[in-house]
Amino acid sequence: MIPQDPGPAGLLAKLRSLYPNTGHPTYLVRAPGRVNLIGEHTDYNDGFVLPAAIDRSTWIAVQARDDEQCCFHSLNYDSSACFSLASLAFDHEVQWINYPQGVASMLAEAGYPLRGLNAVIYGTVPLGAGLSSSAAIEVASALAFSKAGAFEVPAGDLIRLCQKAENVFVGNSCGIMDQSISVLGKKGHALLIDCRSLDSRLVRMPGDDVKLVVCDTKVERCLVASEYNLRRQQCEEGVRLLSARLPGIKALRDVTLDQLNEYRWLLPDVIARRCEHVIRENARVEQTVVAMEAGDLVTVGELFAASHQSLRDLYEVSCPQLDAMVEIASRVPGVLASRMTGGGFGGCTVNLVRSDAVDRLRSEVETAYARATGITPAVYVCEAGDGASAQEISS
To answer: What does the alpha-carbon distance between residue 62 and residue 24 come to, in Å, rounded to a whole number?
Structure first.
């Protein structure tokens, strides 16, 4: 549960009350969560994604120390934890500290001159909802270490090191989308990302009369769970088997639907279905960009629906609560597009909704979803926001 937002002033006051003033500059850093419009489970297949940073973020107030100790306090967990830069190791007791600790480990491995710090963290990104609270804390932590150590990390390196922290240190085989959009997001836009090259371009969101609404099933998901990593392994196995007839392919990004259909007999059925989802989903991302830029929200809605169906039936990462949420939204006049978003197994749906239908959607979700599942949902009306930032705070 997210406690009351202390605001920047409250975060800084907490830093000063918990930790002595070290005499070094104080910084306030921020990194946003994200909602993915379309392109699910394509990022770790070197494919395309279309996320938007949202106006919910992880904030860190930070001040450098003169030793190797790193002390963090989380307002969300009402918990403190410290580690030494000289002995970075996974903490099995305090799980949340592994995200900043993992980032420190990867920055140190890359040769950046880390120094100890005191920090207070607060996040407005709902935890476990599939809105990438993990990438937000990783990117914010990287900025905190860079400010404390007086060094800069190029955006591309920062993105890759934060992803590596989650892959290697935390143990979740995520792709690079979440860290990319947390760094590169821009207000009023989604970002089309090529997850192989990291090339990206801005895609303007629909106008003010269309709102971005996230509906939280309140079914908490854990991406470190075996099912997520299994999907990645299945895709890699598909590439391995297909490469016998398609030499030179490196990822499912390199396989066309015609090629998959021609050589489908090489694959076990479950592997073939995983591959089909990824290949079709990559095409849907590109089609969605064309439709959004043309203002064709009818087609966007059809592509969202096809994506959800594919994630449910081919990739098998939906759940009854997500399906119920999408079905409920699809019945509400003024809801233009709806599908599950994020890794699956719970979490949220993303919806594009006419402004005058937002209250109607909220009411219908709060009543019909609770009646169907026995769970009280949450509805977040979001804006596409800017990526990560940092500012020095004068004493």
So the answer is: 10
282 located within any domain: yes
- pTM: predicted TM-score of the whole model, two decimal places: 0.90
Residue 60 sits in the same domain as residue 156: yes
Q: pLDDT tens digits for 358-382?
A: 999 999 999 999 999 999 999 999 9
> For 222-280, how does the pLDDT look when each residue is reduced to its tens digit (9 = 90+)?
554 578 789 999 999 999 999 999 999 999 999 999 999 999 999 999 999 999 999 99
Catalytic residue of the set 43, 46, 178, 216: 178
Is 43 designated active site?
no
Q: Which domain holds residue 57?
A: 7-204+385-393
Yes or no: say if 112 and 146 are a contact pair by the CB < 8 Å rule: yes
- Cβ–Cβ under 8 Å, residues 312 and 273: no
Provide the angle, in degrees to the nearest 10, between the axes of the packed helices 320-330 and 297-313: 160
* Number of domains present in the structure of the chain: 2
CATH of the domain at 197: 3.30.230.10
Q: Token pair for residue 61?
A: 């107030």
Residues 6+ apart with CB under 8 A from 234: 270, 271, 274
- For 190: left if phi > 0, alpha if psi spans -120 to 50, otherwise beta; the answer is beta
